[in-house]
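batch job 7 of whatever, protein = histidine kinase
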Amino acid sequence: MRFPGEHWLREHPLLVDLVVAGILMMPSALAALVTHEFVYALDVVMFGAIIFRRTAPVASFGILTLALVAQVVLRDTPQWGDFAFPVGLYAIAAYGPTWARWTGLGIGFVGAVVATDSWGYDQDATGYQLIVFVALAAIVLFSWTLGDRMRTRRAYVAELEERAVQLEREAEQQARIAAAAERARIAREMHDVVAHSLSVIVVQADGALFAARKRPEAATETLATISQTGRESLAEMRRLIGLLRGEENADVRTPMPGGADLPNLVDQVAASGVDVGLAVDGELDRLGSGAGLTVYRVVQEALTNTLKHGGPDVAARVRITVDADGAHVVVDDDGRGVATADDGNGHGIAGMRERIAVHDGTIVAGPRPGGGFRVDARIPLGEGDG
């Protein structure tokens, strides 16, 4: 239980020590004014020294020691100011450096011996002197031990606080890393959706412009395909924006594409005028949501690159093998993508590598022998697959 004002007292230790020292030194100060004896002034000095026991423990204890030596020289009886010594000994043990703590303990025991010998006890009463020494030594040991335990407790509390700050800092770092990873994931999704959809729309729009002069009905069909592609892209964009806004039902409204959606993807690209075929060995339904999305995005990005860089009359073939080890995806085209100038702004292949790396898979993307481009990826099945 804490008393009212304890927090304030902890925040103003110097003021607390000043008030305590002022109360303790008041009798000695009055005695010094009345009797004009220097020994009472020593009491004032000793109590005044404990004001700085926290901020300057070595200097405070040094002043106490010198004042006690002067007292032994001037008077051989106990003084009121002697009560300041246990307080100073506690302070040197609690706040002083290691050498000062042990030096203070040694001075305390020496002081107990000197006080026992100098305070005028009967030299023949050995047993009585022993009792006095033991009592004074016990006060010294108790004061020093109490201060040392307080120092240990303070260090322990400081260590706990530092550990708490470190854990909080680590938690913030983990949160930032997780947020960065999530932003990177969403950025990959945005790139795949926008790049693929716009590539399909551009190719189809170019075809519609060409066909409008000779076959208006073909242009109408192409425009319908463009409209459908745009709507699907908008649906995916809304889902991604929902994720960015933290909407919990974003995935429910528009589910993520997977392996089962690959035929629709191939049909969409074929509608753009690209000769593209799909061959599947195994069951696409065995792919879980994570592996299925990765396979879908790899094929989507590979075909997008074919649309953008393959040139006219390009043909592409998609081969997917699903077995107990995972999914093997190969996308070949016979276009001129290797010879196309790179503007340095593409992130498709880098995005595919990041996706594959998440599943500890492998991917090789580069020119084929004899012309064209190949993307060869292997995605191991995860815990939710199979």
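notes: Confidence is low (pLDDT under 50) at residues 340-346.
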